[in-house]
Amino acid sequence: MKLSNKVLAMEHSPIRKFNAIAQKANEAGKKVYYLNIGQPDVETPACFMEAIRAFDEKVIAYAESGGVAALQDAISGYFRQYGMEYERENIIVTNGGSEALSMTFISLLNPGDEVLIPEPFYTNYHTFVTMADGVIVPITTTPEEGYHYADAEKIEAAITPKTRAICCISPGNPTGNVLTLEEIRLIGEIAKKHDLWIIADEVYREFAYDGRPATSFGMAEELADRVIIIDSVSKRFSACGARIGCIVSKNEELLDNLMKIAQGRLCSPTVEQIGAEALYKLSKSYYDEIRAEYEARRDVVYKELMKIPGVVCQKPGGAFYLTAKLPVDNVEEFLMFLLTEFDDQGETVMFAPAEGFYATPGLGKEEMRIAYVLNRKDMARGVELIRLGLEAYNRR
Amino acid sequence: MKLSNKVLAMEHSPIRKFNAIAQKANEAGKKVYYLNIGQPDVETPACFMEAIRAFDEKVIAYAESGGVAALQDAISGYFRQYGMEYERENIIVTNGGSEALSMTFISLLNPGDEVLIPEPFYTNYHTFVTMADGVIVPITTTPEEGYHYADAEKIEAAITPKTRAICCISPGNPTGNVLTLEEIRLIGEIAKKHDLWIIADEVYREFAYDGRPATSFGMAEELADRVIIIDSVSKRFSACGARIGCIVSKNEELLDNLMKIAQGRLCSPTVEQIGAEALYKLSKSYYDEIRAEYEARRDVVYKELMKIPGVVCQKPGGAFYLTAKLPVDNVEEFLMFLLTEFDDQGETVMFAPAEGFYATPGLGKEEMRIAYVLNRKDMARGVELIRLGLEAYNRR
């Protein structure tokens, strides 16, 4: 019995690749600062579990395939705060942003069709595009340029007759890159010229710092027929385990076809939708509070990082990630050293090697990704441990 | 911008096709007995919401990609009751049986690869196989033979060099057909001979009547390397909205590759897994109670159905569905008549036309599916309304 080429071409999560080794370090009595995964320590707003605890239907029945109407209305209200008008019929509730992405790629891609994605990119895009028998064509960016990709020449060089869509994540994982509305419009013009769909993964929308406004491809009216927004409660509300996300679009033909997949898998979980409704109804002041916390964490991380001689990193504008080039040939070897040979007062640190975030072979070997999802003190200590580890690594 | 051929080839749920028309009948003051959908009226065991209400983590964090360990252990314990040994590493928790199926097909099928499925079949198989760019090859069964398909000649006639798997749902939706252990072994022999995977959709496992034991492809040790069991809490525990299911297998290579997809979509919902753990721990007496209730409903439905002259139906042995041939040329036209022109004392009835359950064009036009998910009185009245409707239909 054979397995499919697509599943064989997928990869195990590179973010979790070193988990077993870190676990061993832990068991050996070392304290490990985990800067590798995007699981925030911020408390989920209490309204989530309160709404769920109050749910008292006797039968946990199927929800509507497109989502519980009250949740769709709450999502609609959330977008209205930004001047974007999406009605119930524009919103399909999904099992997290993950399912929103996989449903979208399945709806757009024939075998061999191409999607443009700036690299380094969220590694699971590879899984989702491969599930659809599609191919990622990377738009390569560099740490020296702050991972900037909103550049017509750079983007158009990657377009072929097989290109069907461009997928932009802003604020970005793993780079923290944030698109301005002008950049959104520039990318939109390219998409129009080459007749491409735009997949706008905006699950970190409010995590934009230094006074940057929350932007969205949904704000560019001229792109309404081609924009597919991916949203999720995971990061914004620190509710990763809720697995509630959505696809938002104004393209009726797309929505009608997506509904076939949505009906096929029946519905998203009923109880979690009840909780998510409460989250989407939170006022804007909630985002201000969370944003301030993450911005302060970013500042701490960046400041500590700048103490490392030879590191290359432009201050990231959003999300809660930072990718940086370290002064080593091979970041994976350095990480292995940190976990197996190094400690400072019994402590060490874990980050995500960036090679797995690149599609182009050989790139990213000198880069790492940090998720600043711990409190400021721990973040500062984590980055300090990287600095101390580098010193020890170079002394070997 | 184009959509993918696969999404265009999918179909909207035929079970929901007449919903809008039934809705109108309802709004016009008619009472409609809904025998068309598999949403049971049975109360979800209280332990589900109790476990969820007691969940008091401050952060709703990602669960493990393969499932919460305590839930995997509960599933393991559930299978052990039937003498089947599956450990944590044999179990991947999914977003319902639906995701278990779509992940499985994506793992097995290259574009154009074939899966054998007895028809009539659960319509969403079409969506899941098409998502994987695969093709369903039906093994045609008939109401006259009680939709029997465990027949070497019949199955082997459908095998081609592109066949990768045979997918059996037992107890079956929509036919109520239940495989004996001997039939399971016969199908297993064919799968071994032709090197096929066996996808065993057993979400109705306990719904087997007339003293039939609960059977499973997992009971045939000689098939351990090729059997992929699909399980779910939806029907067994009347928890359709929980969207918790699992893939159970002893094939390590398959599991290792499935985990790539599982990691890609991060995890199944954390809170619902807590509730599902409590469900899987229920004792066998729970199934006895539920089985007795459904068996009594089946008896009522079958008895009422046999009062209709010209109906063709073998008494189904399990699940909570029954498919029957009605003495009309076109069941969809008859259903339209029931919803728009007919009533008896202000009441009418809705069922699922069976044409959508067949892959072979032209088949199923004279058949309907009934889900016996209402109480006995309502089920009896629903089938009586079909009989009265037929009389009125023939008098026109």
UniProtKB/TrEMBL annotation, chains A, B:
Gene3D superfamilies: Aspartate Aminotransferase, domain 1 (3.90.1150.10), Type I PLP-dependent aspartate aminotransferase-like (Major domain) (3.40.640.10). One of its GO terms (molecular function) is transaminase activity. GO terms for biological process: amino acid metabolic process. Its EC number is 2.6.1.-. Residues 32-383 form the Aminotransferase class I/classII large domain. Keywords: Aminotransferase, Pyridoxal phosphate, Transferase. It is an enzyme of class 2 (transferase). The keyword Transferase applies. Its cofactor is pyridoxal 5'-phosphate. Belongs to the class-I pyridoxal-phosphate-dependent aminotransferase family. PANTHER family: ASPARTATE AMINOTRANSFERASE (PTHR46383:SF1). This is Aminotransferase. It comes from Zhenpiania hominis. The lineage of its organism: Bacteria, Bacillati, Bacillota, Clostridia, Peptostreptococcales.
